[in-house]
Each structure stands twice: as C-alpha cells, then as structure tokens.
Write a structure and sequence with these properties.
Elements (H helix, E strand, L loop, with lengths): L2 E3 L16 E3 L79 H5 L2 E2 L2 E2 L2 E2 L4 H12 L4 E2 L16 E6 L2 E8 L4 E11 L24 H7 L4 E3 L9 E6 L2 E5 L8 E7 L5
Antiparallel strand pairs: 1-2, 3-4, 4-5, 6-7, 7-8, 8-9, 9-13, 10-11, 11-12, 12-13
Length: about 270
C-alpha cells in the first residue's frame, strides 16, 4: 500500500501559505499484496465436491477465437461430351446418354423416304427451300421452273431442282402426292466419286450415310434388297428398300459402301 506523508515545508515568505504533499513509496520488501477474492465453484454435478442439477457453465472472460474454416481445394474437371445423371435409387433426375455433338444441320436434316428433316414430301417448294437454307445457308444451284424432261422424264408440266453441294431437292407440279400444284417430290444425296463433299455426314435415322457399308444398310433395313447393276446401261449396283428409299453402291459385298441415296419420287432416266 502507498503511504502519503505530508511534510510541512520550511517557513517562507508570509504570502506563501501552500503546503506541497510529498509521496513516499516504501521499499518493495514492505509491500502488502492485495488479497485474491475467493470464488466458490458453480454448483454442478460435473465438478467434484459440488452438487447441482443441469450443468452450469460460467460465461467466458474473453471472446472466443474465430473458428478455423478449411477451404477445400478447387479441382479442375476436364469437359466431356457425355452427360450423366444420378443413378441412385429414387433419384428424380432422368438418366441421360451421350451428348450429340453433331452440327445442328446434320442433327436436323435426317434422310428418309418421307422427306428430309422436317420437310415432308408434298410441302410447298418455297417453304422447303427456306427451311433447308436456314440450316445449310444459300444454295449452290437453282434451275428455276423448267421443262419436266430436263431431269429425266419427270411428271407434270414443270420441275425445279435446288442444290446445296451434293444434296439436291426436286419439286414438280404433279406426282403421286398431288396434281395441279407445285410441291416437294424427292431428294438426292451424293454424286458418284464425290463422297465427303459438302454437306457431309447427313444420314438416316439409324445412321446410314454416304460411305456406310452394305452390312450397315442391311442392319438398319432388314428388308433391303441388294441388286447388281448393269454396266452396259451404266447402272451401278444398288440397294432398294422400297419405292421411296433406295441408293447406289460401290458393289454388292458386305464391305462395299453407299455412294448415292434417293428419297421420295425419282424422275425416270
């Protein structure tokens, strides 16, 4: 404890009546430590020698340290062309297969005996041309409406052929589908000796395309007939599914391949 001792100053002038206090600090050996208050333990069943009900925890005397947050490392995943969904039992997400990475024109313009893509045989010519143009761009040739014999004895009084590379669409004003109005009557895909030219890789619903093997055609169309050609008439070997779908082949063996495909009505040669 610090003791304050007031010592009277010597007499000075009569006007100086103040007495300056002097603080005297005793040596460390005489210091008296302050008593430490005793805090009884909180009654609780968790402390030895005490009793109580539910545990009572004293409030902390200092704020708790900030929690340590562990950030997981970022894992880079390479892109893939296959999308999958959860296959866990009870999952509401449907499973998906490989993602189709083909260009939209190839996905859309599926070749078939009833037309090409969404363009069905019998449709208005301008609508069909606009549809295919939206997928392939501008055509490479357009005959305009010409004499029906221009492309080999076509029916009606006028015909028109529009080309996008090795894909040709044929229009006429008469066919088994309609008479007296111009409409889409058929398509031809491929030219002899020009496999791989644009538009490349168009195919049927089952995947048959130019260059597909004869065995591939038979797998998609079990009813197909494989016919030998006539060299004297310059008629190539061919496959025939029905009157609306056929094509030319490089030969009749399983490993020979498709060179040209036809859909819809064909003008006679």
């Amino acid at each position: 404890m610090t003791l304050a001792v007031l010592v009277a100053a010597g007499c000075g002038s009569g006007d100086d009546t103040s007495i300056a206090p002097t603080v005297v600090t005793p040596p460390p050996s005489s210091a008296v430590p302050a008593p430490t208050p005793t805090v009884p333990p909180v009654p609780t069943a968790l402390l030895p020698g005490t009793t109580g009900g539910d545990p009572v925890y004293p409030e902390p005397t200092s704020p708790p340290s900030e929690p340590i947050v562990t950030v997981p490392p970022v894992v880079s995943v390479a892109p893939t062309t296959e999308a999958t969904a959860s296959t866990m039992p009870g999952s509401s997400v449907p499973a998906t297969g490989p993602v189709n990475t083909e260009p939209i024109a190839i996905q859309e313009l599926v070749l078939g005996g009833a037309g090409i893509g969404s363009a069905a045989l019998g449709t208005d010519p301008d609508a069909v041309v606009q549809y295919v143009t939206s997928l392939l761009g501008g055509n490479t040739a357009d005959s305009g409406w010409v004499d029906p014999d221009t492309f080999g004895f076509c029916p009606g009084s006028s015909v028109r052929r529009v080309d996008w590379g090795v894909l040709s669409l044929l229009f006429a004003d008469a066919s088994d589908l309609a008479t007296g109005r111009r409409h889409f009557i058929g398509w031809e895909y491929g030219r002899l000796g020009e496999i791989g030219d644009e538009p490349a890789r168009l195919h049927t619903a089952g995947g048959v395309r130019l260059g597909s093997r004869v065995a591939d055609v038979a797998a998609e169309f079990p009813e197909v007939s494989i016919l030998e050609g006539d060299p004297e008439l310059e008629l190539p070997d061919q496959f025939y599914v029905d009157d609306s779908f056929s094509g030319w082949l490089s030969g009749v063996a399983d490993d020979d391949f498709v060179t040209v495909m036809f859909g819809g009505f064909r003008c006679g040669g």
